[in-house]
Here is the input.
Amino acid sequence: MTWKLYAVVSAGAFVATYLMSSPTKELARSAAPASPKSAQKALAGADIEQLAERLHVRLRAEESYRTPGRDLFRFQPKPVSKPVVSVPKPALVEAPAFVPAPVLPALTLSGIATDIVDGMPRRAAVLSAPAGVLIVREGESVAGLYNVLSIGEDSVELEATADGSRRSLRLSAR
Here is the structure.
């Protein structure tokens, strides 16, 4: 775009804005204020007296005080209710509640490690649990749920701390 074309377009936009923003004659005529004498005559009539009377009636109605239905700063005593006489129901024989066995975590034997300490083999079991991998020796606790009784070459004997039941884990051939 050349500078001359740019100047012509800008000037045209300026002129169009000026023409659109000037008030029209029709709006100026309709917005002309009424003469002050005619406005005073309209307000001086009976309408003002009626408005003043309505305001006085409203003020008188608000003057009458009435006590509130409740006190927000004090508690009311609860209403005394009559005791309900209940008819005793025949006793039902309840079945003993079913107590499900605790769900023990799934443990698998992943491996067995053997160390020679003072000429004696000392074994450690590698257990896989949902929480991660555990390395335990005989007599140690497994997550507070089992005690390790013995570790063989391919198996581990566990005893549940809750009920004393025994569980044996074996290495799986993969």
